Amino acid sequence: MDFVKELLEYVRHASVSTDPAFANGMNGAREKACDLLRRAGLEVEVVPTPLHPIILGRRKGPAEWPHVVLYGHYDVQPAEPLDLWTTPAFEPVVRDGRIWGRGTADNKGPHLVAIVALARLLARHPNLPLRITFLIEGEEEIGSPSFPAFLQAYKQELSEADCVILSDTASPSADQIAITTALRGIVGMEVRLVGPQFDLHSGLHGGAVYNPIQALAEICASLHLPDNTVAVEGFYEGVQQPAEWERAELRKLPLTEAQYLAFLGVDSLHPAPGLSGLEAVRFAPTLEFNGIGGGYQGKGSKTVIPSKVFAKITCRLVPGMNPEDILAKASAAIRARAPKGVKVEIEIKQGNAAYFVCPPGRPNTPKGQNPVLARAFAETECAITGAFGKPPIFVREGGSVPIIEDIRRETGLDSVMIGLFTPESNLHAPDENLDIGMAEKAIKAYESLLEGVAKGGRK
Amino acid sequence: MDFVKELLEYVRHASVSTDPAFANGMNGAREKACDLLRRAGLEVEVVPTPLHPIILGRRKGPAEWPHVVLYGHYDVQPAEPLDLWTTPAFEPVVRDGRIWGRGTADNKGPHLVAIVALARLLARHPNLPLRITFLIEGEEEIGSPSFPAFLQAYKQELSEADCVILSDTASPSADQIAITTALRGIVGMEVRLVGPQFDLHSGLHGGAVYNPIQALAEICASLHLPDNTVAVEGFYEGVQQPAEWERAELRKLPLTEAQYLAFLGVDSLHPAPGLSGLEAVRFAPTLEFNGIGGGYQGKGSKTVIPSKVFAKITCRLVPGMNPEDILAKASAAIRARAPKGVKVEIEIKQGNAAYFVCPPGRPNTPKGQNPVLARAFAETECAITGAFGKPPIFVREGGSVPIIEDIRRETGLDSVMIGLFTPESNLHAPDENLDIGMAEKAIKAYESLLEGVAKGGRK
């Protein structure tokens, strides 16, 4: 199975889960994923959901074989703004040692690494004593709304597995792999303000009505303090600070603040007090504006006072924060700060997730009574060191993989998270790409660690 | 010449001047306007400009005939948001005694009133002793960028005329005509903020960088005080307060604040201190946000920190304010309030205009040495009273007609402004419309007042 050839084909299916216009792309990507799993040697089941089906690829075996759950998602983020792509988002190409296209890094490439590794490993060892459940969902980029019901239906099967291994997190560079020890949670909302019942001529009516853009700007501006903290009452209540070893491990990141500034293209960072920029994206909760829109946005000018405006907001959560609680507090703050003259509507987004900290007993191996999980961590560290010539670092990550915490809550399974994209991968942005050399080394590492887990048995 | 039939044809030409995609509509509307002027009995000249040509329709005659300049514009505002129109913007229909479509009220209907009146008057009085220069431009909705050069080229011809009569202002209702005694000026700018050099994943980078939406919200929020005044240093410097007679005349408006609230669909008004809502839109300067945009605005969610955001801003000016000065002050305030971590770009829009107060010597007739202008005011008052059964009121208006002040500055010509749309006309908004009964009465009034001016001679 050729990684580059298969990924190019996989990425051509424009599987944007958030937009019904991409139904063909979703179907095509799903069929491609099923085909890949079958060719790797797995039995495939497609589980229908109210929205996008979930794929299960299984390798069954006796109960004494270790049972690993692998995870990926075949859906991708929207590709907009399209005009900022060097080559079209869904016409992937190889250039400068990378594959460019939407989904190359998030997440088609990383889970294809595991599929290719599995295919090669099972070709070499047809009788490998390892059970596999390869789970590929299609709603990760919209918060996995169908996942809880799926988890309930498949709870027993999954609970009998030993651990999850997945790659949907970042590493700092193509030769420095990170094992992710925690993820931030996420909650989202869309705030809509309605002022006058229709757009008004700003000459004939300007000066009498509260402009909804002004009201929205005032609300949004009120949500942070000058010290870069979130100005929502009780937002930081119960927040747990990172351990000293976590800060120490993070200092091993091969990235200086100057390099980070250059990468971002900004002249200053704005972390919350007591944190460096590199720490803040991992240790601090946030309230971010992901989109804003209202009034005339076309060429030239149109002198209106708009009737409606909106802002899309997400909060990232750290240990100690509760998703429902943060949504309630942020909604209350927004409603309380809206001026007279505008009406506020708040839509809470599906797919909220708590933070996730895994596993206990870091930095290197988990505590507890699960020998397969402990071996998975040890084999991962060893396999990464072998394939990349450098040991991995164990760090928290700022992103969110909502289903990880769901799985642990419902099935007790912990996850080993191996980062297979880098800051240069442009996740959720134009010119998304994956480093081919990194992926090829990762395939070797996956082969080695799965073989090690299999040979260690269940004790 | 049938008013309704001609207006339906005229409006079908989608003459959106701000968008090059509407070149066909601009050409079609211009040809239609030329045809209408010719059929009314005028000689037509089309004056090329760098953008949209200006139409001149002339009726020449001896120097002792009064010489009136009539004005209109054949371009219209964009029709967005298209989904809020009951029937398509450029497929005009008659419904409930009104003609619905983009441009029916601003300004194709009102200047068609003057054309039809002229056609009927000249049909009855082929030898009427009246000179006409009918000027119809195509860039009013984008600030008339070609008009200054046109004015220079035609300065001598226009300077020899006696006054301007036009209808591009509002009346409070279909049976209460307003003569506009002043217009607000306008200046515009687009503010663009650039943060990180590309869109960032808000999980991987949120907490380290200044979100440009947040920065823009903070800048926009800083531009007003809680008392609804504009928070730009020196904004109100030199502002002249309205005269007591102006407030008294405004109280004749057949519109209560409760009715205005119901019309707008809001539960409160937010005028600057010391002014009612109805006064504020005429007497107070403003800074309004006409549009804002950035980040993901599509369906669902996309967790980005955008690289770029923008806001479109216009200020309305009242007597005592200078356009260049206000632009400089507003730009300086915006630049000074931008946080570190974002870059600010400000594009000043073409087509700024000073306020306009005309004529001196209100309330009813102008002072000064121009007997034709004085007669035009008196005949207008008399003709409106006759056609509508009620005398007009003399009030300031909140909108801006940039070329009016340009004309006076360059040629010395004052303007009689007769309002032929109403608040229900939905100017610059979906479901723009014109009251047919009001237009038919206005045609009679225009016939009568032009006949009166002609017969009064030049002394």
Structure characteristics:
four-stranded antiparallel sheet, Aminopeptidase, Alpha-Beta Plaits, six-stranded mixed sheet, 18 strands, homodimer, about 450 residues
Describe the sheet with the most strands of chain A: 6 strands, mixed
Shape of chain A: globular
Instruction: Report strand order across the widest sheet of chain A.
Output: 1-2-6-3-7-17
Mean pLDDT of chain A: 93
Rounded to the nearest angstrom, the distance between the terminal CA atoms of chain A is: 33 Å
Structural class of chain A: alpha+beta
Compute the CA-based radius of gyration of chain A: 23 Å
Q: What would you say this structure looks like, in words?
A:
- 2 copies of one chain form a homodimer.
- With 459 residues, chain A is α+β, with helices and mostly antiparallel strands.
- The first copy, chain A, has 2 domains: 3-183 and 355-456, Zn peptidases (Aminopeptidase, 3-Layer(aba) Sandwich), CATH 3.40.630.10; 185-239 and 285-348, Alpha-Beta Plaits (2-Layer Sandwich), CATH 3.30.70.
- Chain A is built from 14 helices and 18 strands.
- Chain A has a 6-stranded mixed sheet with strand order 1-2-6-3-7-17, covered by helices on one side.
- The radius of gyration of chain A is 23 Å and the shape is globular.
- At the A-B interface, strand 9, strand 10, helix 6, helix 7 and helix 10 of A face strand 9, strand 10, helix 6, helix 7 and helix 10 of B.
Topology of this structure?
Two copies of one chain form a homodimer.
Chain A: H1 3-12, H2 23-40, E1 43-47, E2 54-59, E3 67-73, E4 93-95, E5 98-100, H3 104-124, E6 131-137, H4 147-153, H5 155-159, E7 163-166, E8 178-183, E9 185-194, E10 200-201, H6 202-205, H7 212-221, H8 244-250, H9 257-264, H10 277-283, E11 286-295, E12 304-305, E13 308-317, H11 323-337, E14 343-348, E15 356-357, H12 371-388, E16 393-397, H13 402-411, E17 415-417, E18 433-435, H14 436-456
Parallel strand pairs in A: 3-6, 3-7, 7-17, 8-16
Antiparallel strand pairs in A: 1-2, 2-6, 4-5, 5-18, 8-15, 9-13, 9-14, 10-12, 11-13
Helix pairs in contact in A: 1-2, 1-3, 2-3, 3-14, 4-13, 12-14
